C-alpha cells in the first residue's frame, strides 16, 4: 500500500472531497485524523473508515481558531506517533454579489480558507521536521485563476492559496517537506449540491466541460494519494487541476 503507516490530518473530512480523500488514504494504509467543525459527522466518517478496516479518529475543530491548531497536531502525534501528511481541505464558499458583500463575510472567508491553512501548515511543519519531512496538500480551485460571478471572496481566497502553496514549497523544500495543491473543477459536493441539482444550471455547467460531466469527489482521490506518496518526492510547489478539461475552454 502506498501510504502504509503514514499519519495524515485531513481537514473538512466529515463529508465531500475531504471525506473521499480521507477514505482513500485509509485504504492505502494511512492512519487518519478526520478533522471537521461538524463533530458528529466527523465521528461517523471515522467510524465508517474503521469499519472498513482503516485506522481513523475524529477531531471536532474550528480551524478559524488558531489556538486549536496545536492540539490538532498533538492529537496526531499522541495517537499515532508522528505526522506525515496534512491536507488543507476545509473551506467555506459564501455567495454574495460584490456590491452586497460585507466585511464580516470577508473576514470569515479569509480566516477559514487562507489564514487557517497557513498557520496549520506551520504547526504541522514543525511536527514533520522531527521525523525528517512530510507532505502538505492544499485544496485549491479552478476559481483561483478563473473567477465566477458572486463568489469573489472565495475566488480571492483560493488565489491566495495558490501563492501560499508556492511560498511554503520554497521555504520548506530544504526540510524535505513538499507542498502542493489540487484544484478541483465542478465537483458535486454539499457546498454546491443545491445549485448543481438545478437541471438548467447543471446542463449549462456541463456544457463548459470537455469531458461532458460534473466530477465526483472520488475523482480527487488519485491525485491526493500521488502527492502524499513517495512517488511525488520530487514534486513541490505545483498544482494538479482535476477539472475534466474545464480550463481548456
Short characterization:
With 249 residues, the chain is of the alpha/beta class.
Please describe what this structure looks like.
Helix 3 (67-80) packs parallel to helix 4 (103-129) and helix 4 (103-129) runs parallel beside helix 5 (152-172). The N and C termini lie far apart (37 Å). Strands 3-2-1-4-5-6-7 form a seven-stranded parallel β-sheet, with helices on both faces. It has helices spanning 16-27, 39-51, 67-80, 103-129, 152-172, 193-196, 199-207, 221-228, and strands at residues 7-11, 31-36, 55-60, 85-88, 134-139, 177-184, 239-242. Strand 5 (134-139), helix 5 (152-172) and strand 6 form a beta-alpha-beta unit. The longest helix is centred in the middle third of the chain and has 27 residues, at 103-129. It has one domain (7-241): 3-Layer(aba) Sandwich (Rossmann fold). The chain is built from eight helices and seven strands. The chain is globular and about 50 Å long. Helix content is 43%, strand content 16%. With 249 residues, it is an alpha/beta fold.
> Biggest sheet, strands in spatial order?
3-2-1-4-5-6-7
Structural class: alpha/beta
Mean pLDDT: 96
**What gap, in angstroms, lies between the N and C termini?**
37 Å
Helix content: 40-55%
Low-confidence stretches: none
What general form does the structure show? globular
Number of strands: 7
| Assigned CATH architecture | 3-Layer(aba) Sandwich
Largest sheet: 7 strands, parallel
- Measured by DSSP, the beta-strand proportion falls in 15-25%
What oligomeric state is this?
A: single chain
At the first level of CATH, the class is Alpha Beta
From the 3D structure, determine the CATH topology. Rossmann fold
Radius of gyration, CA atoms, in whole angstroms: 17 Å
Number of domains: 1
CATH superfamily: NAD(P)-binding Rossmann-like Domain
Amino acid at each position: 500500500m502506498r501510504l502504509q503507516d503514514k499519519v495524515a490530518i485531513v481537514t473538512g473530512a466529515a463529508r465531500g472531497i475531504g471525506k473521499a480523500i480521507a477514505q482513500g488514504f485509509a485504504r492505502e494504509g494511512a492512519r487518519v485524523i478526520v478533522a471537521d467543525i461538524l463533530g458528529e459527522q466527523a465521528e461517523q466518517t471515522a467510524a465508517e473508515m474503521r469499519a472498513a478496516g482503516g485506522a481513523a479518529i475524529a477531531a471536532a475543530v474550528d480551524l478559524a481558531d488558531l489556538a486549536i491548531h496545536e492540539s490538532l497536531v498533538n492529537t496526531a502525534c499522541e495517537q499515532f506517533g508522528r505526522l506525515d501528511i496534512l491536507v488543507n481541505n476545509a473551506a467555506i464558499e459564501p455567495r454574495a454579489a460584490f456590491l452586497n458583500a460585507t466585511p464580516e463575510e470577508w473576514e470569515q472567508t479569509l480566516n477559514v480558507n487562507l489564514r487557517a491553512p497557513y498557520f496549520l501548515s506551520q504547526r504541522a511543519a514543525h511536527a514533520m521536521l522531527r521525523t525528517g519531512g512530510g507532505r502538505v496538500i492544499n485544496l485549491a480551485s479552478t476559481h483561483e485563476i478563473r473567477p465566477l460571478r458572486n463568489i469573489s471572496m472565495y475566488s480571492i481566497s483560493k488565489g491566495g492559496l495558490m501563492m501560499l502553496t508556492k511560498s511554503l514549497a520554497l521555504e520548506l523544500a530544504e526540510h524535505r517537506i513538499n507542498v502542493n495543491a489540487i484544484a478541483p473543477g465542478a465537483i458535486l459536493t454539499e457546498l454546491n449540491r443545491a445549485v448543481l441539482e438545478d437541471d438548467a444550471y447543471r446542463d449549462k455547467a456541463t456544457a463548459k466541460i470537455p469531458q461532458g460531466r460534473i466530477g465526483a469527489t472520488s475523482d480527487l482521490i488519485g491525485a491526493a494519494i500521488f502527492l502524499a506518496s513517495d512517488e511525488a518526492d520530487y514534486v513541490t510547489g505545483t498544482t494538479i487541476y482535476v477539472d475534466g478539461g474545464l480550463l481548456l475552454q
